[in-house]
Design brief:
The complex is a heterodimer of chains A (142) and B (145). Chain A is of the alpha/beta class. Chain A contains three helices and eight strands; from the N terminus they run E-H-E-E-E-H-E-H-E-E-E. In chain A, the strands form two sheets. A four-stranded mixed sheet of chain A has the order 1-4-3-2. Chain B is 14% helix and 43% strand. Chain B starts with 7 loop residues before the first strand and ends in a 10-residue tail after the last strand. In chain B, strand 7 and strand 8 form a beta hairpin. Classes of the chains: A alpha/beta (142), B mainly beta (145).
């Protein structure tokens, strides 16, 4: 067996299948604060930037999204959730901000992320995907 | 209502995949892809695999965390189309040989636009048919939407 011919740097992007791409674009840009990166209408690929990485949205009725079959339901997901690092993490102001946009808020918990234990809030996007906003690691927990 | 979020986004931190056979998935992500086990929280059915700077978490669909998401994912109607991991170097011939040696099904390859510009990618299936993209170094040229 050959040696593994590469090493990993980290995540580059996640690609989410969706039904209403305009509602999803509104949420990821106008609420969460992503910026529009590119739209490929031929493929049906809508890319927004989240810091160093991309979140790609593929509507299920456009070419790329069609290959994955029907729309995802509210359960039976292959992705439980994904997490975006945010900074600073001020729970009160984040909750107030997101509530002001009508976002369904879950608990704030101390959770282990890629850089250690720190605060995280769990929210739902318009199509029921869980998004975690993850603050910097907290020295009190590491 | 404040119009801007009270934070800056740094980037992705982790991705959590629901799986039926966590052991087989862990072997794949460690032995084939080169991940390492970061932490294993057995009561929660959570196995965290380090993929470079980030984590890929595997949760069992019947575990404490996974059960919240209902049924196991099927072959279709998934919420995650695919995800991409940056690798270096990208030697397509060597990658194909490595994946073939592990009986991995390659589904596509070619230059694609990612977080750092356009660069080579190869796409294949994990044991539960999630599509994984390994992405080589990119040209650093940003698209302008």
């Amino acid at each position: 067996m050959t040696a593994r011919p590469f090493s990993m740097k980290g995540l580059d992007h996640v690609v989410i299948r969706c039904t209403d791409v305009q509602a999803m674009l509104h949420f990821y840009q106008d609420v969460l604060g992503c910026t529009l990166e590119d739209i490929d209408k031929d493929l049906g690929l809508y890319q927004v930037r989240a810091g160093s990485h991309l979140i790609d949205l593929v509507p299920i009725d456009e070419p790329m999204g069609k290959s994955g079959g029907p729309a995802p339901g509210r359960d039976g997901h292959n992705m439980d959730h994904f997490a975006i690092q945010v900074e600073p993490y001020d729970d009160d102001s984040i909750r107030a901000y997101l509530s002001g946009h009508g976002v369904e808020l879950g608990s704030t918990l101390i959770r282990g992320g890629a850089e250690g234990e720190g605060p995280a809030i769990y929210i739902k996007d318009p199509e029921g995907n869980t998004v975690e906003l993850k603050g910097p690691p907290d020295p009190a927990y590491n | 209502m404040s119009s801007k979020p009270p934070y800056d986004m740094i980037g992705l931190d982790h991705l959590v995949i629901r799986c039926k056979d966590q052991d087989a998935m862990a072997r794949f992500y460690c032995d084939v892809i080169g991940g390492t086990v970061d932490r294993h929280n057995e009561p929660f059915g959570l196995l965290q695999i380090r993929v470079g700077a980030h984590l890929l978490d595997l949760i069992t669909v019947d575990g404490k965390l996974g059960a919240r998401g209902g049924a196991a994912p099927g072959q279709e109607a998934r919420n995650l189309d695919h995800f991409a991991i940056q690798i270096t170097p990208f030697d397509e011939e060597a990658l194909r040989a490595h994946l073939a040696a592990h009986n991995v099904t390659i589904v596509d390859a070619g230059d694609r636009y990612g977080a750092e510009g356009t660069g080579p990618s190869i796409y294949f299936l994990d044991p539960e048919e999630n599509i994984v993209e390994l992405k080589g170094p990119s040209d650093g040229v940003r698209a302008s939407a």
